[in-house]
Amino acid sequence: MDLRHIPAIDAHSHPFSAETADLSEDVLRDAISVSLRGRTSRANESMLLARFVVAELARLFDCEPTFAGVVAARNAVSRDDYPGYIARLFADAAIDTLLVDHGYPANPELPFEPFAALLPRRPVQGYRIERFFPYAGSFHGTGEPQPFEAVLEAFQAKLDEVAVRDGHRFYKSIMAYRTGLAIKPTDLAAAREAWVAHQAYGDPAEKVIRDYLFVVTAAKARQHGIPFQLHTGHTSHVNVWSNTNPILLTPILNSGLIDGARLVLVHGGYPYCTEGGYLTSVFPDVYLDLSLMIPWASAGIARRISETLESAPVTKVMYGSDGIACPEIHWVAAHAGRRALGQVLDGLIRDGFLTSSQAEDAAHAILQRNARELYGL
Asked: What is the pTM of this model?
């Protein structure tokens, strides 16, 4: 199926700096490598995704299909009119709009408005709760810590503020990077005790606090009628991937504590795509997006989408890119994602799981309609 006629809503992405109007080969290679360790090896230019990016950029610029050649051709176009160049990319990839978690990058954090001004259409922003805890003065720092009740009150007030005053359309947590997804029901007394004991990142008390605040955030998401995005799966080198398998959420989902809060499994649990898709089929308030597996599964994107759709309701699956660092990632993800989704739908028609009209409807649902309805766009 050729899906280029369907504009895509990118349900999960991150901002990039205006300074990338002049892009270095290192920044592009690091973005393609989705590594949080720092500068990557030039050997990564032989990755399948890197070669796909080079081929697509060479097509766009009609230039030499080498890493150096496409970066040079790109910079010649982008440095004088960066918003115009980004508009060209988004038009070429039929990207409608982005849902943006601008809590990453965090050091320094990129302001939302300057990033929004670069894009042809204003993006939709969400609030990463880690911008508050353990940041924003809530961590112990020096001297006596604030009472936990005071921290909790301030945290809840911040969640109200961003949803009501600032118009954020979702909450987001990356606790998978820190304490994993085996979230346990935790009462206020245990959280208060953990807050007093908490001394440093990674100590046992931190998990108790994060588990408690997860339920608090879900309650606020339910109150304000906005989705709660939760990072699942791939965590670079920061946490062992088995700690971030979305199936670990089963006990907290069974507890009833977060019933009614619409939970979005960001990245669909990749590489645990079967597990992510299964959870959406058994829990009515669980959804997922396909970001990060698109585009970083590279030649395996179609296989990962197929694994997700083994049990996931089509109405609960959304396209996403996890675009970072530079607009080329958002752009190439839309191309790679459409091609892979088209291949998957072709196979489902051939094997009798979908009719042609059902496949067309599924493409519209995954690429835009589900996100439009879930996030109230």
From this structure: 0.94
